Amino acid sequence: MSRGKIRRARKRLVGEREEALFHLGGLVHDLHRRGGIDPGLLERRSGKIDEIDHQIQLLDWRLETLGRERRARRSGGPIEAGHCLNCRTPFMAEAQFCARCGVPFGPMSDPAGMTMEIEGLPPT
Ligand SMILES: [Zn+2]
Does pTM surpass 0.90? Predict the structure, then answer.
């Protein structure tokens, strides 16, 4: 996936997030006025915003990874593929799981239906 595509997807998510927050604010106000806030409903709405945050984080991570790959290709140096989303430990392109916390780096699940490919990376 190209950087431009990731940026556009990210922008769309940020917009969705703002909209979701806006509606959540309106909802809380409305419920408060009527004298009852349903915690279950709030939790679901908040969960949706958390989910969007998570997707934005994934896209940021990909942009970071793509930038790093580009720099590595230019310099011909060893390639660090990214940071573990769980503990922020850097990992190499061919790593199957995080060396520190053990989180697997298999094909990333992607709610937007996109898959990331790391290409052109030589083995160490
Ligand atoms: Zn980790």
Answer: no
